[in-house]
Design brief:
alpha+beta
Length: about 170
């Protein structure tokens, strides 16, 4: 069941560095991302798959919270192409890219892979650094970077249901 995958998912910060993630698995993650809902079906996302070890190290040098990329098999940088959102859908890229990101995390967990979501947007200094690193135009906003690999940590999620955070209006 989906709830079991949701319960089991956790952020992984240590990966088995020799273990690889296949191109087929990456495509499954990207397909899951592109099945996410988006405002007016604008689908504003773009994805950069980084497998090059040198480029992964460059990411760690511009984003201090991505050190897990030193052992991850790859990274997926989720970006928003603002030119794809017009009219009613304009400005909803954070929700759209967030939904795509969550789909990647859940699909990875279903495949037995570990992930860690590291935010870029709305930290504009990080947005600028990632734009420079990947030579992105101003119309493309790097939203987050996701480390992907085989977890070297024990599995098991950390979330839980809290009734106190729910208001019922009947």
């Amino acid at each position: 069941m989906v709830i079991d995958v949701i319960r089991d998912r956790k952020s992984v910060r240590n990966f088995v560095s020799e273990a690889g993630v296949s191109e087929g698995q990456i495509r499954e993650l990207l397909e899951a991302a592109m099945l996410a809902p988006s405002a007016c079906n604008s689908r504003p996302w773009k994805f950069i798959v980084v497998q090059n070890r040198g480029k992964l190290c460059e990411i760690t040098s511009i984003h201090p919270y991505t050190q897990m990329l030193t052992t991850a098999s790859c990274a997926i940088v989720v970006c928003a192409d603002l030119s794809l959102q017009r009219g009613v859908s304009e400005g909803f890229f954070p929700q759209d890219c967030g939904a795509a990101t969550q789909n990647i995390l859940l699909q990875a967990a279903a495949l037995g892979l570990g992930t860690c979501w590291c935010g870029i947007y709305p930290k504009m200094d990080k947005v600028k650094d990632f734009r420079m690193l990947f030579e992105l135009p101003d119309s493309v906003v790097p939203f987050c970077v996701i480390a992907v690999g085989v977890s070297a940590e024990e599995r098991g999620g950390r979330g839980f249901y809290e009734e106190g955070k729910v208001t019922w209006i009947k």
